[in-house]
Design goal:
The protein is built from 13 helices and 12 strands. It is an alpha/beta fold. It has 2 domains: 184 residues, Glycogen Phosphorylase B (Rossmann fold, 3-Layer(aba) Sandwich), CATH 3.40.50; 167 residues, 3-Layer(aba) Sandwich (Rossmann fold). Strands 6-5-4-1-2-3-12 form a 7-stranded parallel sheet, sandwiched between helices.
Length: 392
C-alpha cells in the first residue's frame, strides 16, 4: 500500500469534514476566506508559491492567512507581512506513527479553513493530509496518482512543455479568480532590514560601478555540487573581466561547505552579515549579479529580479530551469568541466543588460569606523506557536 493511502486509512477519524465539503472556482478564495499555507520546508517551493499568496494579500489585506511551517522559515514568513498566525512543526511531529501527528491534525481541524495550499510540487502525503484535516473545501497541492482525497485541486505540468516551477501559479491564477498579471514573483522582505542591508552593501562597495556578485557553492536540488576548485577558477576568471566583489551565499544549513569555499577566496567582504537565512536572502536581493547551481538561493534571486546565471549540471529536473526572463540565463555544465569564461561572460552581459561594459568610477570610501547606522526592525510579527510534541 502506498504511504499516502496508508496514512489516509490510519488518520480517517481526523479528516471526515474535509472530504465532504464542496467548493466552486472561481469564488473559493474571497475576502472572508480563511487560508492555510503549508510549507514543506523547501525554500524554492515557498518562493514559487509567493505570487499567489501576495496577490491574495493585496486584494484582501485583512484576510486571515495562516502558515504551518518548519522552524528555519519562521523569520522569513513572520516578517513578510503575509502571515496572520504561524504554527511551527518539527520533523518528528509529521510522523504518522507518533501521537504528535494526531495532535497536529486536530489543531488544523480547529482552524475552520476554507482553502489549504500545500506549497510543494512533489508528493508529500503527510503534509497533504494536513490540508485535508484542516477541513478546507479547496485543497491545492502537487499532482500525483495518490493525492486524492488530500488534494482536489492539482497543479500539473503542461503535456507540451516541462515549464518552470516559478510559472505554475500564473497558470492556476485564473481558476482562482486572479488575472495572471496580478501575480508578482518577488518575496516580500521586511523594509527596514532591506534598507539596512542596502546601507551595509554601499559601505563595503562604495563604487556604484563595481558589481556585487553573489555566488552559491551549495548542493543543487538534484544533489549535484560543483567542485570548490572549479568555482574558485570561475571567480578568478570573473575578476579579470569585471570590476566586482564576490560574496559567497548559501543555505546556512550547509555552513561547512560555505566556509570552506569562502576560505579559498582571497578577498571576501567580511562585514556583511551572513549568519541566518534571512541575512543570506537580504544580501542576495542586493546583488548586481548572482551565479549558482540549481539551488534555493538561485531561484530566490530569479524571483527578485536579480540578474542571474544558473549553472546546470547533468540530470537536473528541467522544471527548475528559469525561462522567459530577461534577467536569467541557464548554462549547462558537463560533469568535471570548468565553466567556459567566454560563454559565462556572454550570459552575464545578457542578464545585466550590458552593464558590465561600463567604465568604473572610483568613489572614496568613508573613513574606518563610520559605517551605516543600525536600523531597528519595527515590522510587527504575527502570532507564532510551536506544536507540542505529544511524545515528549
Amino acid at each position: 500500500m502506498a504511504e499516502s493511502a496508508l496514512i489516509n486509512t490510519l488518520m480517517r477519524p481526523f479528516i471526515k469534514r474535509g472530504r465532504e465539503t464542496p467548493f466552486t472556482v472561481p469564488g473559493a478564495l474571497g475576502a472572508g476566506s480563511r487560508l492555510l499555507c503549508i510549507d514543506s520546508g523547501d525554500l524554492a517551493d515557498l518562493v514559487f508559491h509567493a505570487p499567489l499568496l501576495t496577490a491574495y494579500k493585496r486584494r484582501h489585506p485583512g484576510a486571515a492567512m495562516d502558515f504551518l511551517l518548519p522552524e528555519p522559515h519562521v523569520d522569513l514568513v513572520a516578517q513578510s507581512g503575509l502571515a496572520h498566525h504561524c504554527v511551527v512543526y518539527r520533523d518528528g511531529q509529521i510522523n504518522p506513527w507518533r501521537p504528535a501527528y494526531g495532535s497536529l491534525l486536530r489543531k488544523l481541524g480547529a482552524g475552520q479553513y476554507d482553502v489549504a495550499v500545500v506549497m510543494s510540487f512533489r508528493p508529500n502525503p503527510r503534509l497533504e493530509l494536513g490540508a485535508l484535516a484542516s477541513g478546507a473545501a479547496l485543497r491545492l497541492g502537487p499532482s500525483h496518482e495518490d493525492n486524492w482525497p488530500s488534494v482536489n485541486f492539482e497543479v500539473r505540468r503542461s503535456p507540451a512543455s516541462e515549464g518552470y516551477y516559478g510559472d505554475r501559479m500564473a497558470v492556476v491564477a485564473p481558476f482562482l479568480g486572479f488575472a495572471p498579471g496580478e501575480l508578482k514573483p518577488r518575496w516580500p522582505l521586511p523594509g527596514d532590514r532591506l534598507r539596512h542591508t542596502a546601507q551595509q552593501v554601499h559601505f563595503h562597495k562604495p563604487n556604484p560601478d563595481q558589481l556585487l556578485v553573489g555566488l552559491d557553492p551549495g548542493v543543487s536540488k538534484g544533489g549535484h555540487a560543483f567542485a570548490p576548485e572549479n568555482l574558485q577558477f570561475l571567480v578568478r576568471q570573473l575578476a579579470t573581466q569585471l570590476v566586482c566583489k564576490v560574496v559567497p551565499l548559501a543555505d546556512p544549513a550547509d555552513r561547512d561547505r560555505l566556509d570552506r569555499f569562502s576560505a579559498r577566496l582571497s578577498e571576501t567582504p567580511v562585514g556583511l552579515p551572513r549568519a541566518t537565512l534571512m541575512d543570506m536572502l537580504l544580501l542576495a536581493s542586493q546583488c548586481d549579479l548572482f551565479i549558482g547551481g540549481n539551488t534555493d538561493l538561485m531561484h530566490f534571486a530569479v524571483a527578485m529580479g536579480v540578474p542571474t546565471v544558473a549553472l546546470f549540471a547533468e540530470g537536473e529536473d528541467p522544471c527548475y530551469r528559469p525561462a522567459g526572463r530577461s534577467c536569467a540565463r541557464a548554462l549547462d555544465i558537463a560533469s568535471g568541466e570548468k565553466v567556459d569564461i567566454e560563454t559565462l561572460m556572454e550570459a552575464v552581459e545578457a542578464v545585466t543588460g550590458g552593464r558590465t561594459g561600463r567604465p568604473s568610477t572610483v568613489i572614496v570610501a568613508p573613513p574606518a569606523g563610520e559605517g551605516p547606522p543600525a536600523t531597528a526592525v519595527t515590522d510587527a510579527a504575527p502570532a507564532t506557536e510551536a506544536v507540542p510534541d505529544g511524545d515528549e
